[in-house]
Amino acid sequence: MNERNERIHGVACTFRKPADVFHAAEKVRDAGWTRWDVHTPFPIHGMDQAMGLERSKVPRLTLLGGVTGFITGCLLTWYMNSFDYPLVVGGKPFWSPIFPFPVMYECTILFAAFGTFFGQFILNRLPRHHHPLFDLPHFARVSDDTFMVVLEASDPKFHLDESRNFLQSLGGQEITVIRD
Amino acid sequence: MAHAHDSSSERPAILDKVRPAELPRPKLILNDRGFHWITDKVCGIVEEPTPLWWKVLFGVALFIASFTGLGLFYLVSTGTGTWGLRSPVGWGWAIVNFVFWVGIGHAGTLISAILCLLRQKWRTSINRAAEAMTIFAVMCAGIFPLFHVGRVWFGWWLFPLPNQNGIWPQFRSPLEWDVFAVSTYFTVSTLFWYMGMVPDLGAIRDRAKTWWRKAFYSVLALGWRGGNRQWSNFEMAYLLLAGLSTPLVLSVHTIVSFDFAVSNVPGWHTTIFPPYFVAGAIFSGFAMVLTLMLPLRAIYRLHDVINQYHIDNMCKIILATGTMVGYAYATEFFIAAYSGNAYEKFAFINRAFGQYYWAYWIMVSCNVITPQLFWFKKVRENHSLVWIICLFVNVGMWFERFVITVTSLANDYLPSSWGYYSPTIVDIFTFFGTFGFFSVLFLLFVRFLPLLPMAEVKMVAPQADPHAH
User: Fold this and answer.
1) Which of B29, B69, B268, B457 sees the fewest Cβ atoms within 10 Å?
2) How far apart are alpha carbons B285 and B256 in whole angstroms?
C-alpha cells in the first residue's frame, strides 16, 4: 500500500439497475479482486456466484448450537430428575431419553436458533455503528433503490487512479473516494 | 425403461416445433411500482405525523387493556377463587384463552417459515405483520398460565432455576414441556422477526431527518450496510431460521395438545389431537392475519403490494384448514363410536347434545360452515364479507377450545361429581383486556417499525431480476 492511500478506505461507484451491477460484479471478480463488496437494497439473486463468494459459514454455527442444545437438554433433565433430586414416579426409570424428549427437542431448536442468529451477526461483524461508508452522502440511497460497488484500499490490487478508471470502465456513476 | 431414460435426457423434439405458452403468473406488485415507491410507501408510514385515527385507537386499546390489569390485580390480591374454577372444572377460561392466543400466533410462523421454505413469494408483503402478530399473541397467551399458577410470584419455579427448596421441575409433566415449547417459540419468533427487520430498519435510518429518529433506528439497525457479503450470511441465516421454525411451530401446538392428550380424561385422550390442534391453529391464525391486514391495507392504501391474489391465497388456506378441522370433528366422533368405550362415546354425544350444546354448535357453524363460503370467488373479492367471515372464524376457534376443555371436565367418569362451569366477571375482564393489550402492541408496531419487509418485497419485483430484459 503506498503512502497516499493511508487514510483512504476505498473507492465507490453507483449503478441504477440490478443487471448493471451484476455484470460489473462479474468483471471485478474476474479481475481478481478480493477486498471488495456490492451494496444493494435487497439480496440480488445469483450475486454470490457473480462475486465468487464461498458458501456462507452460518450453517456450521447452527449445527454447533443445535448439538450444544441437545446435549444441554439431556444433561438438564438427567441432572434435575435423576441425579440431584431423584423422585420415583410410577416406578419408572429416573431418566430415559423418552419422557423428556420434548424438552430436549425444544432446547435443540432454541440453541440452534441462537447459533444462527448470533452467528449471522458475528460473521457480518455487526453491530458496528460507525463505518467509513456512512460518510458518503449517496450511501443513504443504497437502502432505497441504488446499487454500489466498493473497492477497498486494503486490496493488493488497489491503486487510487487505476481503480477509479476501472470503475468507470464498468459503467459506474458517481465515482467517489471513501475516506477513513 | 431404457428407451424412456434415453428420451428424457434429450430435449424433446416437439419443443422446437411449438413454442410452449408462458404460464400467466399472478402479479405480486401491481401498477409496476418501482423500488423507490416501495421504500417511500413503507417508510412513509413511520415518518408521517401520527394520524388522528391512530391516537384514538391507541387510547381505546389502552382503555381495553386496563381491563386485564384490573382483572389480574383483583385476582392476585384476592386469590384464584375469583375465577370460575371449581371442582370438577379446574381448567376454565385461562387454558381456553391460552390455547386461543397461542393458536393465533401460529399463522405468523406459517407465513414466515413454512411458506418461505415452500418458496411462496406472495408471503413477502404480509410476513412482517404476521410475525409481529405471532409475538404479541404469544405474549397475551403467556399471561394466562402464568397467573393460573395461583401464586404468580412463584412463577419462576416453572423454569429450571435453583430455588431455596432445593427441588427441580418434574420433566414428566406435559405442562413443563409446555413451558419449554412456548418460551422457545417466543424467543425464536422474536429473533426471526428482528433479524428480518434489520435491513429495513437500516433503510429507515438512512432516510431519517431528525436526530432522535436517526439515533433510535441506528441502534436498532446495528450498522447494517447491505453489502452482498452481509446479505449472503443473512439469507443463509434467514433460511436456517425458517427451517428451525417449521418443526418448532409444529411441535409447539403438538405439545399444547399434549396438555390434554396425555391425561386420561374422555374426549382428551386421543392421538388425533396434535395434527388437529395444528390445523386449527393455522386456521385461526390466518383469520386473524386477514382481520388485521384488511383494515391496514385500506388505511395505508397498500393495494398494490397486498392485492387480490394475496387475499385469495389466504382465504383458500382458511378454507382448506377449516375443512381439515371439520374433518377432525367428524373423525373424533367416529373414533369415539368405533372405540366401543362407553365414556368416550358419552363424551362426544355430551359435547353435541349435553349442557354445552350451544357452544358446540357455535363452534361447528363458525369453523366448518362459514369458511365454506370461500369456495366462491365473489365472496373472496368482497373484502367486508371476508373480514366478517374471519371474525366468525376467530369466535369459532375460541369456542372450540372452550368445548374441548370444559365439556370433558364438567362431565367425566363419575356423574356424582358432575358440575356446570361458568366464568366470573374477573375471567371476562381479564380475557377482554387481552384484546386491548394485543392492540396496543400492534399499534406501536405499525407506528414505529416497518410494516412491510421492504427488502423482500423489492426482491420479488420483476425489475429485481438481474437477468431481466
Assistant:
1) B69
2) 16
Rounded-to-integer distance, Cα A11 and Cα A150, Å: 6
Distance CA B369, CA B425 (A): 31
Give the range of the structural domain holding residue B211, as residue numbers without chain letter: 30-153+171-464
Count of Cβ atoms closer than 10 Å to residue B72 Cβ: 18
β-pairing, A173-179 with A147-152? Answer: unpaired
* Nearest chain B Cα distance for residue A34, angstroms: 12
Q: Which of B35, B222, B455 sits opposite A127 (nearest CB)?
A: B222
Q: For chain B, what is the domain count?
A: 1
**A8-15 vs A36-39, strand pairing mode:** unpaired
pLDDT at A8: 87
ipTM, 2 dp: 0.92
In A, residues 38-67, which contact B (CB 8 Å cutoff)? 38-48, 50-51, 53, 55-59, 62
Tell me: the pLDDT tens digits for A140-174? 889 888 999 999 888 888 888 888 888 888 888 88
- Do A18 and A63 lie in one domain? The reply is no
- Residue B362 domain-assigned (yes or no): yes
Q: Which of A171, A161, A177, A169 is nearest to A14 (CA)?
A: A171
d(CA B276, nearest CA chain A) in Å:
19
